[in-house]
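Why do we care about 3D structure at all? Because function follows from shape, and shape follows, mostly, from sequence. That is the central idea of this module. The next example makes it concrete: a single protein chain, its amino acid sequence, and then its structure expressed as tokens.
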Amino acid sequence: MKRGDSMGILFNPGNDSYAKDRNYKIYIDKTMLLSFLNEAIGTPGNCIAVSHARRFGKSHAAGMIDAYYSLGCDSTQLFEGTKIASDPDYKKYMNKYNVIHLDISSFWDDYKENIIEKIVEYIYGDLQEAFGDFFDSTKKLSFALMSIYKKNKIPFVIIIDEWDCIIRNSEDKELVHQYLQFLHSLFKSEESKGFLALAYITGILPIKKIKDESALNNFEEYTMIKSKPITEYYGFTEDEVRGLCKEYGMDFESTKAWYNGYLIDGKHMYNPNSVSMAMRRQEFDSYWRNTSSFASINTFITMNYAGLKDDIITMLSGGKVMVDTESFQNDLSEIYSKDDALTALIHLGYLAYDEDLLSAYIPNFEVAKAFQTALKTGSWIEISKSISKCDELLMATITGKEEKVAELIELAHDTYTSVLKYNDENSLSCVLTMAYFTAPAYYNVIREMPAGKGFADFVFIPRVNAGSRPAMIVELKYNKSADTAIKQIKEKKYQGALLGYQGKILLVGINYDVNGEKKKQHTCVIEEYIS
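And the structure:
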């Protein structure tokens, strides 16, 4: 890596990164984050740490911050017409600071053994080029920055992307300690109180909890669990996604099913990368595809903690599970309980968190697909085998193959019976959710939908991409008969759940019967609704 390479240090960077975002076909204005940061400059709250899942807009925000504060460019035209341009203090802070921007992950790739030394070397190289006459490279970095500040009275904004890369990837405790001390010198030393206008660091994990380490305890933290008041500046809000769907002619409800679900401080947030890809390609798909994602999921869901497997199945079947997020040490190598494993998945973006219910859940169909793929490559062989039959079950139902439907639901029952207490209609409902695991790609699947004179157990409403697939009303029975289920649909007029629907509607009755020998048996009856 050569000094000045855009993958490493950038001293007083230009605005190229933000210009690319600004000129991109899909641009959502998040510039009011800058107003929040402006209020923090020169205050005790001027150190900001943002830990969000990958592809949630952290790096995009860092590029915007470069463009706004850096002396290395004039960004007036770029910010014209943006929300921040109407802020009374807009010009007061624009392009007025010396900016240092580090990407720790790029250093880690090249310099694992002497990474801190190399970081300092690259900073000194850029500073020597800019301030050769009065820059003293024999001093430690914080003193060097302070001496520059004393001479030109221009404070520093320091941005660190992937700040937690060393914490996440190194098993060398001494290296981690040295790195934290380096950050302490930059952000909490006496010198930094003079030269530091603003510190903005981003990572995947919140700041690591280390006994007797105070390197970063002066940072205000914003995470996947709590990020008020800047929640809306990372990810896409529901209103923003609704606007994109209208602009690009994409179905909002389908977009919602695929990419919604993250509930942060009461706000519904969408993965911006996935939404942008869906809009641009005009196709709903899982755009969160990389091997490390599946490996991360497997690492945590296969841990041998009591109750963890039960909780994973509950969430895969659409439920929520309580989780204590406080004990997590913010270190993926220090997982000591089921709660730690689930909390790690929340911070990585593979689970969402409902603060009101103190519960974790799988946020959307895209993430559910990531779990599905992870299970195929992991040790949950039987569950993977059952999930692999989901598409076959859906097609068997659509084409009216009653015996095949009963057979595949029996397979799902045998798979999940060790986890679920399979003795009532609610348990059957959970199994059905797992059995039709892939149905949300084509259907809005609603459980316990108010309809007619009661509640339909399941209603499958076709999405715009469902083609000729019919709508379906599914009624479940326990120790009765599938015919009884069909009769109940007709008597209680559950087809009212699809009032105004013009396409084909199937009525599906499923019964689970336990005879005297405790032999499990499912039966199914499928009829086309005739109005």
